Amino acid sequence: MSRPPVAHDLDLCLCHSCGLACDMTHEPHECERCDAPLHRRKTNSITRTWAYLLTSLVFYIPANLLPVMNTKMVGNGADSTIMSGVLEFWEAGAWDIALIIFIASIAVPGIKFVALTLLLVTVQRNSLWARRERSKMYRFVEVIGYWSMLDVIVVALVAALVKFQALADIEPRPGILFFGLVVVFTMLAAMSFDPRLIWNESREKPHIEEVMDEVASH
């Protein structure tokens, strides 16, 4: 049973910038439409993804332990971490803002850490387990990555609202910087991962089966 040709067999490569299918037989290997450099695969995908992911994990610790903002009401100031801010909004009745901060600051990064770690480990082990589901998981990580800055936006909106009051003031604290770095590095980790690695062996398997069939026929 012959397998259908893949892009590598046809010397084609998809441009990562504009999505054009480009001919790799011509030099230099640049996109004909946008002049971006062409790569058949993302270079050092696993190594770079691990590096960005571990860096984001390191920044995630101070992002949750350090205060993200300081609120002064009638001369009295108080620092708030991400979790204490969630609890304060919840107790004040602003459950919608509390839920947004919790999802964007705690749930989303946690999901991305677990999902990317699972993808990296299974790819390194050449696992055949749930390939279609893992591909969908990667697309899900890409989608939720765009909503990771909601917490920073909420802090900015709260600061704007508080400053409208004459006796109140709000200032950012170092925790918000570390959280911004967590968002940036998790997005870089997701962008560095090559989801085609999930299917590497599935393209080789039909070829192996074809060879085995030929040997059996002789």
UniProtKB/TrEMBL annotation:
It comes from the Bacteria. It is found in: Cell inner membrane. It holds the Pfam family PqiA. The chain crosses the membrane at residues 50-69, 97-123, 144-164, 176-193. Keywords: Cell inner membrane, Cell membrane, Membrane, Transmembrane, Transmembrane helix. Its main location: membrane. This is Paraquat-inducible protein A. It comes from Pseudomonas gregormendelii. The lineage of its organism: Bacteria, Pseudomonadati, Pseudomonadota, Gammaproteobacteria, Pseudomonadales.
